[in-house]
Amino acid sequence: MGLSITIGAVYSLCALVAMCAGFPAGGNGALQPNFYGATCPQAETIVRQEVIRWLHSDMGFAAGLVRMHFHDCFVRGCDASILLESTPDNTAERDSPVNNPSLRGFEVIDSAKARLEDACPGVVSCADILAFAARDSVALSGGPRYDVPGGRRDGTLSMASEVADNIPAPTFNLDQLTQSFAAKGLTQEEMVTLSGAHTIGRAHCTAFSDRLYNFSATGVADPTLDPPFLAQLQHACPAAGDGGVDPGLVVPMEPRTPHALDTLYYWGVLRNRGLFASDQALLASAPTAAQVRQSAYGGYPWKLKFAAAMVKMGQIQVLTGGGGQIRAKCSAVN
């Protein structure tokens, strides 16, 4: 799908999302809409321009930036700790096996930050750049256009050891997913809504290969997988002689429209074509299964809920006011 097509598909939901998400009123330590209006009025425009430029070369960066924002917010809050590089004394979040080599889009953030430092030195945080870039990626993938409040500041610590305990695993069941999101202040309904981001991007075969060949250590495939879909996945992710799968192999999360933020993900789950065990787990209870059906049939309402959930997620444990710092370079502390 070309970028010009996805731009034309964007829905404008700014005012509605602002009401649904409940932006803070502002003041001491609160995130605020148009936070850089007086100090760097071109900030969000510059970020959007860089996202567009990189998506012209590879639409896959859209899913990468949305996922990066999620992984940032779920570990130490939305403080851009995911962007810090490892040092000789510390392995950073981005080098955790959960994130490396699958996480992508760092160069997009770096290019936006370089331009912003030229235009407004020391003003725009890396955490806000990432939040804005994820928002723009959603819109440019055919999802909703919505406002994101700014004012996040950048953290100074990033540890790979904290990632696995905070990022929901693709093997999680419904209770584990619900608890993981609840720990971050997100409801089960918001968990199901945000899971819809799995409609774009790609997944490494190693993230779900157990479902293809050795589900729950049974030596056979997951019996809940749609048989034709199972055959497709086994063809795309063949087992090696040792029973493992090539870690370099990837497949689209939703093969029909891999770059469009639509509701085909939910249709796939209803047809037992969820890629991860955690995707298929959404049918494990009556309330979540009902929400999957509602999302599949109601594209516009789902997009509205998705935008509001993204805004809420973007406010998890943020550093504001005098907390943290404004990094000069997103990959290193000042």
Instruction: Output the structural class.
Output: mainly alpha
What would the average pLDDT be, to the nearest integer? 92
Estimated helix fraction: 40-55%
Report the span from N to C terminus: 40 Å
Total E-strand runs: 4
CATH fold name of the largest domain: Peroxidase, domain 1
Strand content: under 5%
> What is the CATH class designation of the largest domain?
Mainly Alpha
Shape: globular
Count the domains.
Answer: 2
Family: Belongs to the peroxidase family. Ascorbate peroxidase subfamily.
Keywords: Calcium, Disulfide bond, Glycoprotein, Heme, Hydrogen peroxide, Iron, Metal-binding, Oxidoreductase, Peroxidase, Secreted, Signal
Signal peptide: 1-29
GO molecular function: heme binding; lactoperoxidase activity; metal ion binding
Tell me about this structure.
The protein has helices at residues 3-8, 14-21, 43-57, 60-73, 106-119, 126-140, 174-182, 188-195, 209-213, 227-236, 264-270, 277-280, 286-297, 299-313, and strands at residues 11-12, 144-145, 202-204, 250-252. With 334 residues, it is mainly alpha-helical. It has two domains: 3-167, Peroxidase, domain 1 (Orthogonal Bundle); 174-308, Orthogonal Bundle (Peroxidase, domain 2), CATH 1.10.420. The strands form two sheets. The protein has a two-stranded parallel ribbon. A two-stranded antiparallel sheet has the order 3-4. The N and C termini lie far apart (40 Å). The model is unreliable at 1-28 (pLDDT under 50).
